[in-house]
Amino acid sequence: LEQQLRQAERLDSLGQLAGGIAHDFNNILAVISGYADMLADELDEGHPSRSDAAGIKQAAARGAALTRQLLMFSRSEPSQPELLDLNTVTSDMLRMLGRTLGEDIELGTVLVPHLPPVVIDRSKLEQVVMNAVLNARAAMPAGGRLTLSTSLEHAGDGSDQVCLAVTDTGCGMPPEVLARAFEPFFTTKGRGSGTGLGLATAYGVVTDAGGTISLESEPDRGTTLHVRLPAGAAGAPGVSPAAPGAPARAG
Ligand code: ADP
């Protein structure tokens, strides 16, 4: 537990630092992007330097995407927790992601009906799911099966947890990667394709909502990311069951 606390503290101060830098950086990138636009406007259609200007804009956009992730990771975005049905969020995400995953991924869901709601910021939860799905996709370069399953777990102390598992049949993680996967900026992906912030951000989002997140992985067999959130509105200050955006149905 002490180690977990130390880890959380380190994540916090790293996050504040990252957030400050990311904010300034975003402004700089906006200026770069603006000048690239102006440059492109001043060049005639077909001028060879127009593609250079487009290249600058593209790189600035990549930088902006990275700083967005940094800001997200630093938790400087305010949270707006609401009552959500995990099944609904999962199916919505699936509909959105299904097309982008590619034909070589067999997509499936196992949804346990009538789950109690969870209390969490919707866009942050979507970010967690999206990142897990993209990690799963990246772990299956030659295709495979991706399953999103929900379930309800009864803890020993009588509290219920609503769970989401994202399972892939990909490359899995050797123990040394598994041990560090939640560390900010830890990535095994090449430069430009991985930030190492996906799981660290997910860790922050889920623990802020009172939940837990864990990985189970076996090399060459695959990986499951488990997200567990406390069931119901209990313990979530400021969120009433009648909060706007509360789902009208429960599964
Ligand atoms: P990134 O995806 O930018 O590398 P993450 O924090 O999301 O950052 O993941 C950190 C590392 O954990 C990845 O680089 C990868 O090595 C490993 N990882 C995460 N998810 C999976 C998965 N589903 N299968 C195999 N390895 C994974």
From TrEMBL:
It comes from Actinoplanes utahensis. The chain holds residues 272 to 522 of 646 of the full protein. It comes from the Bacteria. It is found in: Cell membrane. This is histidine kinase. Transmembrane segments: none annotated. Residues 20-233 form the Histidine kinase domain.
